[in-house]
Amino acid sequence: MDHNPSSSRTDRKTIERNRRNQMKVLYSKLNSLVPHQNSREVTSLTDQLDEAANYIKKLQTSLERMKEKKDSLMGIERSSNNAGGMMISSNSTSCGGVAAGVKSPQIEIHIIGSALEIVLITGLDFQFMFNETIRVLHEEGADIINASFSVVEDSVFHTIHSKTYIIRLKSQHWVLEQLRG
């Protein structure tokens, strides 16, 4: 079998050119994913790679901060274990569906004519109760006039003012029944 050195060299050049073109396309894709402060400035390939690496590190740091914030809002502590990983533990243990050591939500309902005022007091772990209360009011045909909240230490005070024309609002228990059911 006879190998032509000229043909072999041409094949290697073609393979290398294709490899370089493919790398150029991949670098371009990577570069397009990184936000640039000055897009008019032409940067070298090494600077582009360095910028991409720094951007990825910045995203990782930001993601870790967001995870820590989420965990703190949900009442979860993160601590390092000996293996260099993360151990996650809850601040309280569950007891009958309500976390022990965490305030149970309290709800006060005041009806004056067709006006309805709901005061919902929750711990930081029960933010979903506000959304659920709004959802129930909408399902029952109430018009939300105003909704606000205040945070005091580990308690969140939600106040919802609504107007309704539904007769069953004469009973204060309907909101509680809807939230439980």
From TrEMBL:
Q: Which Pfam families match?
A: HLH
- Extent of Basic and acidic residues compositional bias: 1-19
Q: Where in the cell is it found?
A: Nucleus
Q: Which UniProt keywords apply?
A: Coiled coil, Nucleus, Transcription, Transcription regulation
Q: Which domain of life is it from?
A: Eukaryota
* Predominant location category: nucleus
Region span, Disordered: 1-20
**Which residue stretches, if any, does this entry annotate as coiled coil?**
49-76
Q: Where is the BHLH domain?
A: 7-59
Q: Does the keyword Signal apply?
A: no
Q: Does the keyword Ribonucleoprotein apply?
A: no
Q: Mind telling me which PANTHER family this protein's record contains? A: ACHAETE-SCUTE TRANSCRIPTION FACTOR-RELATED, TRANSCRIPTION FACTOR BHLH162
Protein name from the UniProt record:
Transcription factor bHLH162 isoform X2
Q: Which organism is it from?
A: Ziziphus jujuba (Chinese jujube)
Instruction: Kindly list the organism's lineage.
Output: Eukaryota, Viridiplantae, Streptophyta, Embryophyta, Tracheophyta
Instruction: Report the gene name.
Output: LOC107406159
